[in-house]
Amino acid sequence: MPQIAVEIPVKRKLGRPRKDPADLLTERVDVFFSVSGRVKLHQDAKACGLSPAAYIRQLVDGYRPTAQADHGADPQLLLELNAIGNNVNQKLASLPPDHASKSAWRELKRDLQDALQIVALDGVSVSPKLLVQLNAAGTLLNRAVADMHAGSQRKHDWDSLRQTLHDLLTEAALSHVH
What we know:
Layout: H1 35-47, H2 52-60, H3 75-94, H4 102-122, H5 128-150, H6 158-177
């Protein structure tokens, strides 16, 4: 019987790559501090934008974490834009290279990068209403990407979602100019 070669497409696994086993945090150390020492640890770690555990790990690794300059950036807005950016990256990675909407998703990614830079460097904040709208659109995008990864049959209007995010980012940029 003749053999027939069948090419099975390999599904690319998205997401974070596995850590090297040597880099896994498997060992626990309990340390006692005085009240003032604990307060200082938490203050120093927070000033560097780190958790107390991450701050201590950097010290042990020979790094001297430095305090971050506070530009007054809205932490909730930064969090929201980063979450949206993660989902946009996943959507972009799932599209074939010749897909018709790939350039529009790349443009949205650039808009997000610009918005993040403005927020982080200039300390911009937006109205609570716009933040809620960004959160709602980000939640819809997150749900759509999760359905996409799960192979769900649920339909999502990707173009409408992308346009909504683009409009919200444009509104945020215009509010920065005024």
